[in-house]
Specification:
The chain is mostly beta strands and 198 residues long. The chain has one domain: Electron Transport, Fmn-binding Protein, Chain A (Pnp Oxidase, Chain A, Roll). It contains 5 helices and 14 strands.
Length: 198
């Protein structure tokens, strides 16, 4: 067992920082935003997750003030769109660095769908989307972490089976570290907590 401090790892053993590979898989924060003038942005974030269910709250982290963070901070809103196996190449296309004002939706060949309670549009093909209102932005080192309360949920009812959202049919993809490593959810197993109160 090797021990190292994050900035002093053995670079012969670990030439590439494995931090992102250790904390995996992670949901992809496919975030759509608009600026105060109505320009639309869509970008995937490697650091994204749910942080609370009462109220339902999600977060995404950006290394510096990129468009998604600045737009969300300016308008107080964003939308999370579920990235799936079928949308993987579209999602990857939206990770390209484009000049401000150039559409990631158009570049990736994605249709927009209107949201109900917030201004940013949704990815029309995404089977799930959360409409979010920003609750706070926190600086963590060089990163800006945006927290948003989920105020509206869009779900494609085709993937609801016997009252359960079947993620094995949706096949969400997840980030697994290094440059382009991803995983897909295709199967589940269950372990019921010993003291689960039914």
């Amino acid at each position: 067992m090797v021990f190292y401090e994050p900035d002093k790892r053995d670079r012969e053993l670990l030439p590439h920082d494995p931090f992102k590979a250790f904390v995996a898989p992670r949901p992809i924060g496919w975030v759509s935003t608009v600026d105060p003038d109505g320009a639309v942005n869509l970008a995937p974030y490697s650091y994204f997750n749910a942080v609370s269910d009462k109220p339902p709250t999600v977060m995404f982290s950006s290394s510096g003030p990129k468009d998604s963070v600045t737009f969300a901070a300016a308008t107080g809103e964003f939308v999370w769109n579920m990235a799936t196996w079928d949308l993987r190449t579209h999602m990857n296309e939206t990770s390209a660095t484009l000049p401000r004002g150039e559409s990631e939706f158009e570049r990736a060949g994605l249709a927009m769908a209107p949201s109900t309670l917030v201004a940013p549009p949704r990815v029309a093909a995404a089977p799930v989307a959360f409409e979010c209102r920003v609750t706070q932005t926190v600086e963590v080192g060089v990163n800006l972490v945006t927290f948003g309360e989920v105020v509206g949920v869009h779900v494609d009812e085709r993937y609801v089976v016997d009252g359960i959202f079947d993620i094995t049919r949706v096949k969400p993809i997840a980030r697994c570290g290094y440059r382009g490593d991803y995983a897909v959810v295709e199967s589940l197993f269950q372990m019921v907590r010993p003291d689960f109160d039914s």
